[in-house]
Amino acid sequence: DIVMTQSPDSLAVSLGERATITCKSSRSVLDSSNSKNYLAWYQQKPGQPPKLLFYWASTRESGVPDRFSGSGSGTDFTLTISSLQAEDVAVYYCHQYYNTPRTFGQGTKVEIK
Amino acid sequence: EVQLVESGGGLVQPGGSLRLSCAASGFIFNKYWMTWVRQAPGKGLEWVANTKEDESEKYYVDSVKGRFTISRDNARNLLYLQMNSLRAEDTAVYYCATGVYYFDHWGQGTLVTVSS
């Protein structure tokens, strides 16, 4: 199984400041045949289901604010919130769909400092 | 608008069974892989199983193989998860979701509690 490791487990950021979450996979999730990274990011707010933010590592889902960005390739990925807003308080998960079983990172809790 | 509504959760004793349902609407159900993901209380997300549009392919996480069965009724736009031999560690909110790769639509989830 591919193990997904996020860091940090939690972070507190001031409103308007940058928040950065990293995700490392135990094996590459890049398919060299199509140059796609089989990685997604989700946001989960308390009491709600996860919401898809990015797929193919950096393709923003419709409706996701552009202060969110996804980057990385191979085994190392980053989710960045360029200017944290109050509504961004949530737990964020990375997810690999390169192979089965699909696996998720343990989650990163983002709070306001 | 895509809607996924799970039902069938509840309290069950260890060793018992439950069948979860997911009613889908707002999209062409028989054109999509469907997935179950669970989340234990206060914990992270765990992929459980998925099924191809025509059920010709089904996959499971090792911890549920032989105990859980994913199925679907494309005529009624329903996804199922039959859960047998339930264990305390199966306690979780179970979500259905669309997609075989990333999951772009999720239901609100149904809580399964395995306890005596």
Short description:
The complex is a heterodimer of chains A (about 110) and B (about 120). Chain A has about 110 residues and is mainly β.
Molecular structure report:
The complex is a heterodimer of chains A (113) and B (116). By secondary structure, chain A is mostly beta strands. Chain A has no helices and 13 strands. In chain A, strand 6 and strand 7 form a beta hairpin. The termini of chain A are far apart. Chain B has 116 residues and is an all-beta fold. Chain B is built from no helices and 10 strands. In chain B, a hairpin with a 5-residue loop joins strand 4 (34-39) and strand 5. Chain B is globular, with a radius of gyration of 13 Å. The chains are: A mainly beta (113), B mainly beta (116).
Tell me the number of strands of chain B.
10
Q: Which consecutive residue ranges of chain A, at least 5 long each, have pLDDT under 50?
A: none
Task: Kindly report the spatial arrangement of strands forming the biggest sheet of chain B.
Answer: 2-10-9-4-5-6
User: Proportion of β residues of chain A?
Assistant: over 45%
Tell me about the largest β-sheet of chain A.
Answer: 7 strands, mixed
What is the helix content of chain A?
under 10%
Helix/strand/pairing category of chain B: mainly beta
Low-confidence stretches of chain B: none
User: Which word captures the global form of chain B?
Assistant: globular
Task: Please give the most extensive interface between any two protein chains, plus how many residues each contributes.
Answer: A-B, 22 and 21 residues
The tally of helices of chain B reads 0
